[in-house]
Amino acid sequence: MNPTKLAGAVYRDVEKLYRLIGVYSGDLRQMEKQVEFIDKNLEKNLREPLRQGGVMEFDLLMTAVYFDGEEVFVSKTPEFTLAHALFCEGLKSISLRQSLSAQELIDWMMVVRNILISKDQSSDEEQSDLASVLWRKNSPNIQISLYNQLMMMESSNRDLTKFNVDLDTDAFEAQFIREALRSEEQGAQAITQFKRDDQAESQLDTSWITRDERWEIPQGDQLIQRLGALGKRDPEMIQKLRMELADASISDRARKIVRFQAGELDRVRREMEHLDQTQLDYNSLAHSIYILEASDESDTDVAKMAVDDFKKTVQSIVGRFHVGLVLFVLKKVRKWKTKDRYKSLYEKIDQDLRGFLSTPENLKNIALAFGDEQKRALATDLLEYVDSKHYQFLFHSAVSEGAEIAEKYILWNLIRLNLPLDDLVSQWSEELILKALPILAQSEFNKKNEFLSRIIRNRSPRVRNAGIQYIYYIQMDSSALLSLFERMDSLAKKTWLESLLTNSPTDAWRSFVASILKKGQWSSWGDEISALFVRLCFKYMGKPVLEYFSPWVSARKFVFWPKFPQERETILKVAMTQKEVSNSMELRELVRKEKSVLFQSLDLKELLKQRTGS
Amino acid sequence: MKAEIGSEDQELEASLSTVSPRIVAFAVLEHLFQFFRQTEIHDPTNQIFIRCLTNLSRSLKSLEALPGFESLEISFRGEQIYVNKMRMRPHIRQFRQTRHLVRFVRRRKLGALKFPPVVDPEVLRSFLWIVADVDSRDPNPLKTIRDKLQEKSIQGFEVDALKIGQGTALDGEASIADVDLVGVILHEKLRKNLEIIFENFENAKGFQLADLKDLLADLVHLEEEDLLQIFRVNLFKRTDRPFALMGVDAAFAITAWCRSIGLPPGVITDLARVALFHPLIYLSQKEVRISPMTAGEAKALLRLLGRLQSIVDFNEIEKLALFEWVQPFGDDGLYEIEGARCYAHFSSRMLRIIAAFKFLTQARPGYDVLLPDEAIAQLIREENQYDPTLLKLFVNWMGIYPVGTLVELQSGEVAQVFAAGSDPTRFQRPIVSVLKDAEGQLVDRPYLIDLMEMNEKLGVYRRGIKRSLRPDQAELPESIFKMAPLPLV
Description:
By secondary structure, chain A is mainly alpha-helical. In chain A, 64% of the residues lie in helices and 5% in strands. Chain A has 34 helices and seven strands. Chain A has a five-stranded antiparallel sheet with strand order 3-2-1-4-5, sandwiched between helices. A two-stranded antiparallel ribbon of chain A has the order 6-7. The longest helix of chain A has 21 residues, at 3-23. Chain B has 18 helices and 14 strands.
């Protein structure tokens, strides 16, 4: 389904839910089934498509709702729709985020409904003004933008001239005129064009659409970047403005001085459209910390007030899962650990925030954040504050979502944090160990050897065999390795040898191979494993091993018969196909001798034929 | 499922419990406005009216379905519109429509439009055209309309005449003066409250203060023009206890400014409360200056807020703005505190401009006060102090010659700037209230002149501003600033 159709489906469900609330007078028990149904729709049409982040933004107009410039909702009785009510109360648009559930929508709609109903009876404008309430309300996955006069100042010229509408009118009326004059299709095109022009002219940084600002420590710089503030966007422009302002006097130049430059108002308009709770919390926290840092023994009263403010703000950030701010607080309060006056405050905040991070839902969010390039740095920092007992769940969350990149980064960072490997081996499920093993085996960390050694001795054959695939990375005494190898079953031996074959020879492993040769039992492991071993010998020992193998090849029984037919066949087959030795003098000698042999296997004959061309 | 959403009746049933009659009533007003607006542009045969009528009929039907709205009367009292007994408070998106509607019916000297319970669209169309066709010079529009309704056998629709004494602008200045008086009383109440609070802090509770919340709610409901008039009146007021006056004036100015931008009432209330208490920073600094706070000053301010807790409980935005507004804008609005780089909230940046303007223009002992236009120039000159966009917005809104500025006209009259349009081309041509004639004599009754007025023959402006004046240069009696607003001549 294309995005517009998806958005249309989502918005129709929004309106449907609002009406259901009306039908059942807000009694949620009665509408359970319908809510469940809508929630499933949201999963399909909103949560899944927005899994990688982003929002669906709906523009509210007088009689219709638009998404990305296309009409997605109209009603025969627009006066009764949620969209119309919101439009009349001053809302410009509503944006839905990825994790929106039907329950969150209901909670939000109940606020809207209660205000709309109570407004007619109430005389208290501040309490009953929907725009003010929604401006402040922070619903984690519902973001509104309010209409304000600045929008009209920015858009009126370009918006209306297209329709030959008198400039002394407003967007409200213009929309009516558009609707009255257009055919449906033309109108939709016009609105789309308007929206695109709007974006093009303001040249906004649209990256914010796919970014979840809760995963950033909200320094003012980021906010400015997002708002596209003057000076950050175009240093020349700001300099020009500064010069003009500095040079200002009450003269004819004044008009020029106070003229707005393109896109300038847009920044302020966007700031005013809704309350940026993050900016508010960040700045408030900074001020509270400043006062707390500056307070001494004589400022008990001030410190108490600052602590109260600080705690309130922390509650606010926890309530809306702003991990960026949580991390900011954790980092800031760390220095209070050693300050007697704030030690207990530190302990309380630290405990609360760690507790917050340790809820299953938040752990899952953190786990998945490792898979997102933009969130990864913050998730990495946060990991330090996650108790080690949650590591398994964290990794499990990534595995269950199939987030392979996240799996890697989680483990790498857990290693960095000295992941208790004993716990991993003894407590993690077989499934998780098998997922973790390839990542850990190919990573460098201090206890890697110890870890792999434990894995290859694991009680579970699946784990053990999986561990043997990485035997090459183990560093152990060759006699210990040999003893271990000898105790392995055929499959494990095969895996072991294959693991060594896929890696470059090292002295330690040469020594291991040599010790097997020395013991001389390799031929008893069956054709396949013996051949693997011979290949390994050629790879690890090189040409000199031919010398060792020579007696096995040339030994005769009653002149005609090979003394070790099976071994010589294996050696010769491998030797003739092994690059490292196939052109060596020693091999040529072997081949020469072999040509004179009367009785050979068909395979060997074929190989000889290929080799000698006769 | 108890009810399938789909059929019209069920939709209606579902909607009744979620919809506000006010919302539907506004839809009626909007569509009525659209119809009347189009009657001024198009002739009755234009197809645009089909759409207009469809919308209006539908919204009328929707409203009639709501209890208490079975029959409909839209009445106009002053600037207010009532639908049956419900007073309509327009939001930012609705200001223009409601204002246009009020003017439209007022020009026809009508006070109410009444609609029957079931409306036939064609009859409705005829009725609206009869109303629209009334000539504003018609001495008895009511009779004209009623005759035409009878002639066309239209029943159920009625109109009422505009009633004198309902508080309309045409009824004379008294009613406007009443509105103005409300503002003046409010200003005075807030000032007295604030004086007591600033001098007594936690002990102020013993003084039977008026409820600050109620006062601010009233303040937010005042019209932008009224707020500015009161700001104008107080610009040259001298006082030994300036903090309260500075706070209240800033609250009036920021409320008016926010209203012009179209911020929601709750947000404006927050900003007004912060503006009211912004001089707390001077108390914590123990001197009147605008500069970033030291740690000691920040602690002192927090201590003052603590002492006020039982009187006013500031919310998070308000508290932040009280600490933040002294931060200069710098290159990009960022300031650093405890290693955190903060971008000042827009409420703090707006307050900084208003507070600085008030700071520069407030007469107080031992300080060389600036004229409003000088203050504007000073704000513009101070580099990196204010958000340039907000400052431009402020100047756009306030004008180069802000409301309240005393000026000498090129033709010799002494006048005070009464209103400045939002049109950037009118910065230097505001509407002024003439206080002294060209001979330097106080006029009996000040009158308004729009400096945009042209001399048609010469093609030049009739009057212009020569220079701004200090109160002592203008030589005006104090009492002149207490007069009510005047009609435009």
